[in-house]
Specification:
Blueprint (H helix, E strand, L loop, with lengths): L2 H63 L16 E7 L4 E3 L5 H13 L1 E7 L7 E10 L5 E10 L2 H4 L1 H67 L4 H33 L7 E4 H19 L2 E7 L3 E4 L1 H17 L6 E9 L2 E8 L20 H6 L6 H11 L3 E7 L2 E9 L3
Parallel strand pairs: 7-9
Antiparallel strand pairs: 1-2, 1-5, 3-4, 4-5, 6-8, 9-10, 10-12, 11-12
Helix pairs in contact: 1-4, 4-5, 5-9, 6-7, 7-9
Amino acid sequence: MTPSLAQLRVRITLWYAGTFALILLLLGAGLFFSIRHQVSRRLDASLVDATAAVMRATRDLEAERAAGVAADAVEELHIPDRSLYLFDLRGQPITAPDSDEWVRVAAREAASAGRVDLQRRAPGEDDREIRLHAERFTTPSGTGYVAAATVERPGIGEQYASVIGTFAVAALAALVLVAAGGFVLARKSTIPVERSMEQTRRFMADAAHELRTPVAVLRARAEVALAHARDPARDDATLRAIEGESDRLGVIVGDLLTLARADAGERPVAREPLYLDDIAADALEAARALAQRKGVVLEVGSFEEARITGDPALVRRLLIIVLDNAIKYTPKDGRVRLDVTAADGLRTVVVTDTGIGIPADQLPRIFERFYRGDQARHAAEGAGLGLAIAKWISELHGARLAFSALPQGTRVAIEFPAGV
């Protein structure tokens, strides 16, 4: 694991944890203010009910006495945790006579405005508030009064301490779980990146290794030629060797460029109707010269009309790669056979050879870039990129490319979906 990936995982984990902590903070703040608002609404409603009770008691007492001062109206009421007051319209207390000055001021304001709602901090307490509701009313006799009620609201922290504590513990536990889960997710999400980086490093190392050999040969040939006097025969052999290595170098560079474009998705792919049997015939003709040089017999088996949809150039290259491999690894007087069939909704090209074959333990790795088994390295030259390109082309066309070992040689089947 590289340090950069480790740092990336830590950052992703911190982002997960930080985002979740912010969500919890916003949720907690929202709950706090919601509870605070609901408590205030309930208290205000209870104060309105308390002043209404004072009004009813005052009216009832006045009706019973037929007239006069309702001095005992409030004293006859008892509402838990509520302080009840009755004032005349000048703000003078009727009950209770020892009311605080700020309550009297509120009563005078209510006498003028009709009703008043106030809130002030309780003296000597840091988190307690006193809420007041005062309302003017008139009795049936036409006498005006102001009824007032106050209540002390405890701090939210004190009133809901257990709820806040439970929420804090749950939030902390959730944050720990999210951090742990975030790290696991970050680790899983960076595994493909780590694999890709490892494949890139291996690809570059293998590419450098494969390119180093032809470059070294070219340099050695040039140095030898420069160290000797000009000789037409020797110079001709040297130039031919340089030409051969240049061709090999060009093939490797071309294959690397193809794979790089494939990885980047930059290679445009045509989608057009074509006949696989025609493409196969063309590829067979292109491979015939190599077969003749090696003394390998090319055989044509079943050749049925097979319509598919795809890129003609890429499909041709796929077939040439498979045929080229079969010919290269088949000894002199061996045979390579090509069949094209159309059955069961598939269009299939099958190439069989009587070559050196592929050991069963190497079959899972044959599509790896630059991979070549020991037998393949000794049997023919190559860079190990052809089958990687063939795999890419087959996947682009939704085709299945399968290699299987025969008692003598190898069988390659390329199954295309039928063209529309």
